[in-house]
Amino acid sequence: MSALRKKFGDDYQVVTTSSSGSGFNQGPPEKKKKRQRFVDKNGRCNVQHGNLGGETSRYLSDLFTTLVDLKWRWNLFIFILTYTVAWLFMASMWWVIAYIRGDLHRTHDDKYTPCVANVYNFPSAFLFFIETEATIGYGYRYITDKCPEGIILFLFQSILGSIVDAFLIGCMFIKMSQPKKRAETLMFSEHAVISMRDGKLTLMFRVGNLRNSHMVSAQIRCKLLKSRQTPEGEFLPLDQLELDVGFSTGADQLFLVSPLTICHVIDTKSPFYELSQRSMQTEQFEIVVILEGIVETTGMTCQARTSYTEDEVLWGHRFFPVISLEEGFFKVDYSQFHATFEVPTAPYSVKEAEDALLLSSPLLAPSLCNSGGGERNSSLDGLEALEDSDCTAKLPTKLQKMTGGGCRDGLPRKLLRMSSTTSEMTYSLGDLPMKLQRISSVPGVSDDKLLLGKASKIGSEPMSKSVADLPPKLQRLGGGGRMDGHLPPKLRKMNSDRFT
Q1: pLDDT digits over 394-410, tens only?
Q2: What is d(CA 469, CA 202) in angstroms, rounded to the nearest whole number?
Q3: What is the DSSP string of 95-118?
Q4: What CA–CA distance (Å, rounded) separates 86 from 306?
Q5: How far is CA 489 from the centre of its chain?
């Protein structure tokens, strides 16, 4: 315990969530009443198909798959029953041939040639069939050349026996080599946890491989099963939502040679965006985890499944480390595979945390609350209120329409917005986004960059009479000197007082 606190700090409290025990005294937190699961912890789906009606014939059309999918007790029963019935049937056929020919009553006649030598009752006919089927050949019972019907039956028996052997033995072999057994050596943590990782609230669970053989092309997926009602009033009892566990970054492709912690970042796109520690007490959901890969030894695709209900998700916990460096190798301690310890975690959802941050930082309000050109429109409205209404009479009619009836000293509105003085500001720097405030505080940053960024940045210096303080576009219009070099005569006359 002292070493653990030295490594993780005094604020961390170690708990265990393993049912088998992991060396800690404290037990898991109290769970809610167990409810019905869609997928068991061992991966079995709790789904039964009923009222199939005439659709049951579809199972017989794929008889081989039906037999493979049956439980072992039914497979063994069908295996034994099929061979027993086939053997008894074929033995009866040999006995019938011997009975019809009268071989059963002339077994001691040395001059008589029977169909099958030394077959004089049903047990002897059964033994002859077994010797023929198993190719044992003791040499005491054999077919003679005086029995064509026996030769035909022998051919039929050989063909039928080969078909039965191929079907039943193949079925048993496939069932024994199914990759489901490989999934037994893939472990999932008994609980999932929610805590901070890399500054983000993250849902995490652990997966491990007990064998030294690898899972080729291992990939993991997560589904959230939760009931909901659509806006149209339709109730979806088991709506499936995808949980991103690194599909966009490739983190869902696993190199599963040691236990890995799978992470789902809770953000605005996550179904857990509004999930908090308090709401988990009333929520009902189930997280289904699907791990797929190719078994290295057989080349068959294996799928392992498990699930976590809302009472198996621990808020404010983190998994205990299980990998340690030894001399020349890395050691994995699976006794701590399910163990977790508590870490300081805020009980709020991501949505609540963002709302609280928005309310506590008014500087972020315009950038978060206004959409599109809201900032620019509000700033422009403030600027338009400062424009003199009578100055439009000095401009030609066409320019009055272009400026919207508002200007000062004959300047276009765009120039006024980029060169307004501090006394004309209607929005303080507190109304600007933080990034723009930092830009506006740096000397030498021109106002045209802020205007292109859709911000209501207003200059802090009065406009100089030279064109050096004007945007580059207006400087080019002025030929690098006075602005009236390329203006119409009327505008040069109107603006002579300002630019001379």
Answers
A1: 445 544 555 444 444 44
A2: 50
A3: HHHHHHHTGGG-TT-TT---SBTT
A4: 42
A5: 69
